[in-house]
Every structure is written in structure tokens, then in C-alpha cells.
Amino acid sequence: MGAPARVDPVRDHLRGLGAALASAERHAAQLEAWGVELAARLRRGQRVLVAGNGGSAAEAQHLTAELVGRYREERPAYSAIALNAETSSVTAIGNDYGFDEVFARQVRAHARAGDIVLLLSTSGASPNLLHAARAGRLAGAATWALTGPGPNPLAEVCDEAVCLDGPSPHVQECQLAAIHAVCRVFDAIVMDEEGRSS
To answer: Which residue, 9, 31, 99, 190, has fewest beta-carbon neighbours within 10 Å?
Structure first.
């Protein structure tokens, strides 16, 4: 009997990521449209509220850092809040109202008509994100979902959704790629508009 085949976890992971990224490319037009719309709204003084759980929370903070700080080029700061990073609010709301309300209550406090509520989830089924999406719609904000494979409940309750194919770790990695793609479009539009107005 021969020796068992050697498992190569690193190459196996990277091959899986490559397949997930290839499937994510199907959403290129939607991601570009999000970058265009994000630039239009934030330049009008509106804001984006972003939230996620676990690894998706880290990606939510990553996006807001790129918008408040900068992605690549020097440009003005834009209003973006990662709701999961508001630790005192998250823990107080979770303690007083339950974990399902930790984002929805913040959305009710901060979201205004014309803002964007962007929710990140690998499962697309987290109750606290579903509640946040509904709160965003009631506030008159646009609701976007960046999720794992669809169809899923979050994609169905939001106005627009990009559903990334693959297992949870690869979905999280593709979330970052999607965020950077949106930021690249956002920056290109902002820099072009700033150049025209100067």
C-alpha cells in the first residue's frame, strides 16, 4: 500500500481563493456601480454606515478607514462609520436590548435619507444585520449587502447585494478585494471631480 498523498494546505488554500476571486469577478459591474454611487452620495455630504460580525467586522472597519483616511491618493476625508467599532454602544445596546439590536439601534440614531447602510456577512443570515437592514430602509437609506453565497436572507432584505461564492474564509478574503475595488472607483471619481473644481 502506497503512502497517503501529502496534503499541501497553503497551495490548497490559495487555489481555493483563486477560484473564489474568479467567481467574484462576475460582480465587477455591480462593484463599479457601488463605487460610483458611493462617490456621488459622499460628495453630497451623505455618509456610509458599515457593519459586520467577526472577520466581516474587520472588513467593515477597513472600508471606513479607507474613506475617512485615504485609499491611495491624497484627497478629502469622507464620512464613514463602522458600527461594530463603537464598542461602548455595542456593549450597552447588547446589554440593554439584546445582541440582535446592536446595529439597528445605531442605524436608527445615525442614518438619514440618502445615506448608505452597507452590511457585510459571510452567511447572509445574521439577525443583527437583518435588523440593521430593515432599520436602514425605514430611515430612507440605501441598503447594500456584501455576503457569501446567495440567495440568503440579508441579500433579499437589502436594496442591492453582491453575493460572493466560496467557503467563509474565502468570502472574507474576497470581501477585502471587493472593498478595494470599490475604493479604487471611488478615488478615481473623487480625484477627477476635485481636479475639475480646482
So the answer is: 9
